[in-house]
Design a protein that fits this description.
single chain; about 375 residues; alpha+beta; Rossmann fold; OB fold (Dihydrolipoamide Acetyltransferase, E2P); 2 domains; six-stranded mixed β-sheet; five-stranded antiparallel β-sheet; about 25% helix; about 30% strand; globular; binds adenosine-5'-diphosphate; binds magnesium ion; ATP-binding; ABC transporter ATP-binding protein; nucleotide-binding
Amino acid sequence: MLTFVPNKKCSALLFMAQKNASCSYIPNDTQRTDVPFIFGDQLSHTFASKEEVIAVDHVDFGISEGKITAIIGESGSGKSTLLKLIYGLLEPTTGEVRYQGWLVPTRKDKLIPGHDAMRLVSQGFDDLNLYAKVWDNIASQLPNTNLARKERKTQETLARLKIEHLAQQRVADLSGGEKQRVAIARALINEPEVLLMDEPFNQVDAAFRDALQQDIRHIVAETGITILLVSHDPTEVLAMADELIVMKNAKIIEQGSPEALYFNPSHSYTAQLLAKSNILTPDLAAELGIACHTSVGIHQEDIAYHIHPDGQFVVKDIRFRGFFNELVVRRGPLKLHAILHPIIDIPIGTRVDVTIKRHIVFENK
Ligand code: ADP
Ligand code: MG
C-alpha cells in the first residue's frame, strides 16, 4: 500500500514501487488501480463570474496512455476548461480527475499550479519570450546545474521538432508554424509524461499543419508520451488522433475512435462536426423512404445522383471546395448537400435523381 508523500515529486521508495514518477499530492488520497490513465468522474467546473457559467458539467471520461486524444466541439463547449481541470489549473466544482489513479492537485494543494508530470502548451504562444532566441526559449527550461546536459538536451529537442536551423533566430521573426514547434519543444524538454495542447494548429498554415501533425505522431511513437489536444475544427485532427472526445454545451456526448465517430456517430452534432453531414428530421427522412423515429444523418459522399430531364431534385447551388464541388439539391422542403467529384459542368437548375447509399440513425432527436 502506498502512503501519502506531501508535495514531492516522488520518494525513492515510491519511485521503486511505481513505473512512473507520479504520486499522491493530496492528504488521505489512495491510488485507484481500477481506472484509466487519466480519469474523470462526474467532473464539473462552474465559473462564478457576474452570472454563473457551468463550463464543464458532470463529465465522465477515460484517456489511454501513449495515445493522442483530441477533445473536439464548437467554441464555448468547455474544451479549454476541461483541459485546465485535467492539468490542475482549475478546481473541480464537483467530481474528480485522477492521473495514474491519483487525484490531480490544484492551486490549493500545490504552490506552482499544474501537474508535475504534465505540460500545457496554451493558446497564442503566451509562454514564449518573443524577443529571445529560439535556443534560449527552450534551454531556459533546464537548470544550470549541468551545463553539458542542458546543451545536449536543447540540441536533441530542437532536432526532435526539426527546428535546429532556427536556433539563433528571435521567436518574433518566425512563422506561426515555427512558433508552435518552439512552444512544443519548450514543453517537451523536461520530458513530461503528458502534453496538453489547446488549439495547437490554429496559427499554423494549412500547408505546414500536416507535417507538424505527423511529427507529433512520431514523437508519441518514439517516446510513449500521452497527448491531449483541443480543437474546434475536427477535420484538422481526424488524421492524427487515436481517440476523440466530443463536447457540447459543457457535456461529453460521446467518445471513440475517429473512424467509429465518423461512420457511426450517436449524435447528429458529431456527424455535423466531423462530416458536415446532412441532418434530416424523421418527416424529411420519410420522403427519401427512410422510416425512423429519430433524426437521420446522410454524409455528403453517400449521396449519388444522375442527371435526368425528369429528375425529382433541382440543383440549387454549387460551391467550390477545391478538388471537389459541393452540390446543393432540393425537392420541396428537402435540401441535400452532396459531393460533386470529379468536377463536371452542371448548370444551376439542372434536374437530377438522387440515391442514398448509406444513412445513420441517431440515438436522439
Ligand atoms: P471552449 O474552449 O470549448 O471554447 P471554454 O472552456 O473556454 O470553451 O469555455 C466554456 C464556457 O465557459 C464558455 O461559456 C465561456 O464563456 C465560459 N468561460 C470560460 N472561461 C471563463 C472565465 N474565466 N470566467 C467566466 N466564464 C468563462
Ligand atoms: Mg478554448
